[in-house]
Amino acid sequence: MMLWVLFVNCEGKFFDDAPIFRIPGRRFPVDIFYTKAPEADYLDAAVVSVLQIHLTQPRGDILVFLTGQEEIETAYEMLKERTSKLGSKIGELILLPIYSTLPSDMQAKIFEPTPPGARKVVLATNIAETSLTIDGIIYVIDPGFCKQKSYNPRTGMESLVVVPCSKASSNQRAGRAGRVAAGKCFRLFTAWAFHNEMEESTIPEIQRTNLGNVVLLLKSLGINDLIHFDFMDPPPAETLILALEQLYALGALNHMGELTKLGRRMAEFPVDPMMSKMLIASETYGCSEEILTITAMLSINNAIFYRPKDRLVFADNARANFFRPGGDHLTLLNVYNEWVQTDYSTQWCFDNFIQHRSMKRARDIRDQLEGLMERVEIDVKSNILDSVAIRKAVTAGYFYHTVSLSKGGVYKTVKHQQTVHIHPQSSLFQELPKWVVYHELVFTTKEYMRQVVEIENQWLLEVAPHYYKAKDLVDNSSKKMPKKVGATSEETRVQGT
């Protein structure tokens, strides 16, 4: 199926006009229904549609596509409230959410057989579009939206934005209704919108993501002319140029744009170039054991802590117990080390609102990276008591992401003076240190820094003297205006007359 989509998207042109064979999959017919007019609130429309199907349609489970965890939890509460009001007037409705950060045991419930006389409603993100097939689904509700990652090369910021999904994505969703029997797909948008407003296919990820790792890989393969390289879906030139600039700043490329000895070592690690630089720098500071753990924990995309809606206070308290002075990287290190001390206990994870599946994945990533450390001849040493050494190693990789606290109590990036904020779930959210380095910048409701570590401004001259000068690192947070700068109110009145 993926190969078919691939050929259709590039129309065989990339492969020298090769003929396209369309081999239809075995699936049952699916009736597609559209709304007569656009929906003002697609979430409410989805909830109403679920209840209408439940009351009027024959047996069969329902799959509802929503954009993310927040929407799924809202829809779950709305359905729970409305079904409780109807009481015994309707048959049993089993509500099952599914999204990536949900614990494994709760995710597995969607695959359990539906009891006789009941109907299952699966509230899913686009994870259910292609990644998994759920038996018994006969009805699909498609609001026509999904969350899509986009990347701004000027600010280096990633955004997760709700956008209308493509026709290809919408057809994929409809196909979920015809896996086990003839089904129905209820699209909460008009037929006109589908034919005239939706894109044919989703924008390829290479055109909306940071290309640091891709550029480093291509350079290590001996491909130097990246602007004219024959990409299947060429990324924006601006994104490529920014990736080259970052690699030059990290020391992976020389002034001719050629791979350096450091760059060759960095290319051995299948992680972001900043992360691989951090791993290599850990050798200098004698803390490679700790940086290995931090890298593995950062690689699992904020899926470590679980916050169930009905136990938020307990979950936040459990999280706060792991906080360590210095920042989030040291907190992640503490979480992993405590888990190791419990002999990788599942119960310990459950008690502390930690995703056991994510921790197992972090352990696997760590083992793999440790093998690669040996390959590039880095001795794995431990220095867990020296927080400064660990934070310096992080700074050596992420000096590009330095932020300082300005006079008005607002954080601004050092090079571009962009206003950013510490994420509310960070261990440094209340502390407001003067200088920090962040792991990633994401836009949700504000420009938030995720995974922040406190640093000293002088470390930047030590780890990146080619990138920062002393004048860039002046502490502005407590500066006052010098005397006799600017006119007094009396002088202003005189000038005005």
Short description:
This protein has 19 helices and 13 strands. The chain is an alpha/beta fold and 497 residues long. The strands form two sheets. A six-stranded parallel beta sheet has the order 1-8-5-2-4-3, sandwiched between helices. A five-stranded mixed barrel has the order 9-10-11-13-12.
Unreliable parts: 1-9, 480-497
- Roughly how many Å apart are the termini? 78 Å
- The Cα radius of gyration reads 26 Å
What profile does the largest beta sheet have? Answer: 6 strands, parallel
Strand content: 15-25%
Identify the overall geometry.
globular
Q: What is the β-strand count?
A: 13
* Helix amount: 25-40%
Structural class: alpha/beta
Major sheet: arrangement of strands = 1-8-5-2-4-3
Mean pLDDT: 85
How many helices? The count is: 19
Structure description:
By secondary structure, this protein is α/β, with parallel strands linked by helices. The chain has 19 helices and 13 strands. The strands form two sheets. Strands 1-8-5-2-4-3 form a six-stranded parallel sheet, with helices on both faces. The chain has a five-stranded mixed barrel with strand order 9-10-11-13-12. Helix 4 links the parallel strand 3 and strand 4. The protein starts with a helix and ends with a helix.
